[in-house]
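Sequence only, no structure available. Ideas?
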Amino acid sequence: MNGGVLDEDLIAGMRDVTPLMLGIVPFALVAGIAAVDAGLTLAEAVGLSVIVFAGASQLAAIDLLGSNAPLAVVIGTAVVINLRMMMYSASIAPYFADYARRTRAGLAYLLTDQAYALSIAEYERNDDRSRWRYYLGAAASLWVVWQIGTVVGVVVGAGVPDAWGLTFAVPLVFLALLVPAMKDRPTTAAGIIGGAIAVVAGGLPLNLGLLVGALCGIAAGMATEVTAS
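Reply:
I predicted one. Tokens follow.
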């Protein structure tokens, strides 16, 4: 495969992910604004965004940090929310099996819901694609836009008067993520039960309510799926 074809694969990934940016940009802005509302500095917000690079868990971590939750709770919550990445990794791993471990590690860092879905669909449709270049085109584009959006959100959020109140943005984004995901009985059960328990457990010490709710939601979804099958 020549260089021109390889460049074409990279560009194809960038092109295919472009329509999804309409949802990523406002999400990144909200993450930056939420970071300001939680008291993080620009450097702290950017550092968190670069290290975590996962929208839902990043927002959850910001919310917990703003509530002065223990670091162990913040990390534990982020891990639970991101457990789906293990399934994504296992699914996409065969396509990258022939690459060096260092290359696979770099690609794993960039893994997101969007990059996974686009890449798997393209691999099944087009056997001639350079696996890692197409994936990199999509995943790296998402990473760049997310980081820029976070920085802009921090800058914009820092200039918004405290009286305006920015806290409302976080639950709205989570609702926007939750509702489309509740498309069958297991996911609906997980969303309803996890959310309800998180609210009821909101008074738990160490701000453990969100973590307990997430774990109960996962358990409810699994139980519903087993019952249905």
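Residues 1-6 have pLDDT under 50 and may be disordered.
Hope that gets you unstuck.
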